[in-house]
Specification:
- Helix content is 44%, strand content 15%.
- By secondary structure, it is α/β, with parallel strands linked by helices.
- It has three domains: 3-85 and 262-282, Rossmann fold (3-Layer(aba) Sandwich), CATH 3.40.50.10800; 88-170 and 287-299, NadA-like (Rossmann fold); 173-251, NadA-like (Rossmann fold, 3-Layer(aba) Sandwich).
- The strands form three sheets. The chain has a four-stranded parallel β-sheet, sandwiched between helices. Strands 6-5-7-8 form a four-stranded parallel β-sheet, sandwiched between helices.
- α1 (3-17) runs parallel beside α14 and α4 (62-71) crosses α15 (285-300).
- Bound molecules: 1,3-dihydroxyacetonephosphate and iron/sulfur cluster.
- Residues 61, 86-88, 114, 171-173, 199, 234, 259, 261-262 line the site of iron/sulfur cluster (SF4).
- Residues 25, 40-42, 86, 114, 128-130, 171, 197, 199, 213-214 line the site of 1,3-dihydroxyacetonephosphate.
């Protein structure tokens, strides 16, 4: 079967199975094109929670499918590549988090959605890159524990007058992106605007004109009159940026900004998942229920 035949078969099977295909903004171009909905982690979690479809095919990484399974336990959540993990999410374990909590008794834990269900279950509230400052601001406490991304944590801390305790995790993809990459790109494109994801290092973020989630970059690029944008996040985001603003130029400062896990899923994998209704992601109830509390608290924080 060629790619078009596979895509047609996926669309036909998705109707038969009553399936919704969700794709993260970092997925391969052809997967973003065929998905029912593309978005950032926050938008996709909300879609998973609200859909009335019976099956969710999550084209992303494991923690995202887990979030869908936590929010919609009555649905069948398929992750076409079970080996698509997130190394940052794996940098914190429930045991490690319990140890950090024991050093700061009573201090609430704000956990980035890039984390396992078991870590969420040990936390008080979740956040994503789209709502992190608002979530931490919504807490009455003067102290917070921020897990697992040290870069997002320090970005949040720079916006608020709270004492923050960090977990020293990081995204290996954004970590490969350096100040030298940015300064070279800014020299090559002096009239470009530099937008960056908060998973970048504080040194890189200090050079950014705008810091936002992946979906935040789409609206920023549409609304900003600039013609050239240096893009400080994973390469997959270029597909929709270029599609929505074909007259503008989007520059990826380094080819190292590719997340191998986000690129694992292929159209063949999606077809196989719909044919076999596997691999399925489930979360045991004793973890799912407390993990859902943390996600629900996040979803209840008012947005702009
Ligand atoms: P957002 O899509 O929430 O900005 O997250 C980026 C990311 O790294 C997902 O793995
Ligand atoms: Fe995880 Fe980074 Fe890949 Fe996102 S881009 S899935 S944070 S490794």
């Amino acid at each position: 079967m060629d790619q078009n035949e596979i895509i047609n078969k996926i669309k036909q099977l998705a109707v038969e199975r009553d399936a919704l295909i969700l794709a993260h903004n970092y997925q391969r171009d052809e997967i973003q094109e065929l998905a029912d909905i593309t978005g950032d982690s926050l938008a996709l979690s909300m879609e998973a929670a609200r859909t009335d479809k019976q099956v969710i095919v999550f084209c992303g990484v494991h923690f995202m499918a887990e979030s869908a399974a936590i929010l919609a336990p009555e649905k069948i959540v398929l992750l076409p590549r079970l080996d698509a993990g997130c190394p940052m999410a794996d940098m914190v374990t429930p045991e490690g988090l319990r140890e950090l909590k024991s050093k700061h008794p009573g201090v609430p834990v704000v956990t980035y959605v890039n984390s396992s269900a078991a870590v969420k279950a040990e936390s008080d509230i979740c956040c994503t890159s789209a709502n992190a400052v608002k979530v931490v601001e919504s807490l009455p406490d003067d102290e917070v524990i921020l897990v697992p991304d040290r870069n997002l944590g320090r970005y949040i801390a720079s916006h608020l007058n709270k004492t923050c305790y960090f977990w020293e995790g990081y995204c290996p993809t954004h970590d490969r992106f350096t100040v030298a990459d940015v300064t070279t790109a800014l020299q090559d494109y002096p009239d470009a605007v530099f937008m960056a994801h908060p998973e970048c290092s504080p040194e890189v973020l200090a050079l950014a004109h705008h810091i936002c989630s992946t979906s935040g970059m789409y609206s920023y690029a549409l609304e900003n009159p600039a013609q050239k944008f240096i893009v400080g996040t994973e390469a997959g985001i270029l597909y929709r940026l270029r599609k929505e603003s074909p007259e503008k130029e989007f520059i990826l400062p380094t080819s190292r900004l590719i997340c191998p896990n986000m690129k694992l899923t292929s159209v063949e994998d999606i077809l196989k998942a719909l044919q076999t209704m596997s691999p399925r992601v489930t979360v045991p109830e004793e973890i799912r229920i407390p993990a859902k509390v943390t996600l629900d608290r996040m979803l209840a924080v008012p947005r702009d």
